[in-house]
Specification:
93 residues, alpha+beta, 4 helices
Length: 93
């Protein structure tokens, strides 16, 4: 089964902030972000992939990405990634 839609979370290695998005090609998208091809993250490079989920449905992927941008979604991500974020000294807010 092909799972073409990826919801991902990147972390800036410059300011340690998180960025959420979705794509059909995670490796190409990560290269875009790290080469400065994405305006929203160009000044926060380099970026590291810290989380991704795959979906069959584009609608489900968009829904999940939107959830990650809510307060509840951010809280869930920080809880889910607590070991990863602790290892890299993610700022506590």
């Amino acid at each position: 089964m092909v799972l073409p839609f990826c919801v991902y979370v990147l972390q800036s290695q410059k300011d340690f902030l998180l960025y959420h998005g979705f794509t059909t090609n995670i490796m190409r998208r990560l290269k875009d972000h790290n080469s400065g091809g994405t305006i929203s993250t160009s000044k926060r490079r380099p970026l590291k992939l810290v989380y991704c989920e795959f979906f069959v449905s584009k609608e489900d992927a968009i829904r999940r990405e939107r959830y990650f941008k809510t307060t509840a979604g951010k809280r869930m991500l920080k809880l889910h990634l607590r070991s990863t974020l602790t290892d890299i000294n993610y700022p506590k807010k």
